[in-house]
Amino acid sequence: MEFDKQTQEKIQELQGYEQNLHGLLMQKQAFQMELTETENALSEIASSKDDIFKLVGNIMVKTDKKKVEDELTKKKDLLSLRLKSIETQEKDLTNTTEELKKEVMKKIK
Hints:
Helix Hairpins, single chain, two-stranded antiparallel ribbon, 80% helix, 9% strand
């Protein structure tokens, strides 16, 4: 089926948006996993009565519980902020993609 030049450009644009959306979803998933790991670590630290060790490179070093808690809390806050940003981008990109999809479908029919 042959499409006019404008429709072909819209289809290419739509494919680009869908690729961007896929990349964004992959980033979101990675941040969600990291956030879950951080929350689990914070939970373990909170329930721990013993010494805390931190992995540094290939070795584990004894470290201050409060310091690690503060670091993980900051990391959790940063990850949450990044996730909110990605979710906003995802929503905008999804809306744009849906509108473009409708436009292309009208031209194809």
